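Fold description:
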Amino acid sequence: MKLQPIIYTGNTEAAVEWYGHVIGSKPTIESDMWTAFDVGGATLGVHRVENSPQRGRVELSLVTAEPLEAVVLRLADHGIQPARGIADETFGRSIVLEDPDGTPVQINEHL
């Protein structure tokens, strides 16, 4: 799996500029809703959101090469269940888990 933390922002332009300066590089992917930076083999995502409760939130996301059904079965063997079923997204599919402290962890399967 590949690590992909996601920063949620209401001002994509300012966030992308700021993170670009901090990381010292330009985005590898840039659109209205999603910008990605390569950071030491991981991807830092900057995701635009409109609603204020999500702004400033950071989410841990993992990108898997396995089909999500296989991930769900493997995790079930250890008593780990997704908070909801597999969701169809614009980028592919995802599941959301909670770690022992209740931290949400998203696992994505990209198209």
Remarks:
- The beta strands are 2-3, 6-9, 29-30, 34-39, 42-48, 58-63, 87-88, 92-98, 104-110.
- The domain at 1-58 is CATH 3.30.720.120 (Signal recognition particle alu RNA binding heterodimer, srp9/1).
- The longest strand covers residues 42-48.
- The longest helix spans residues 12-23.
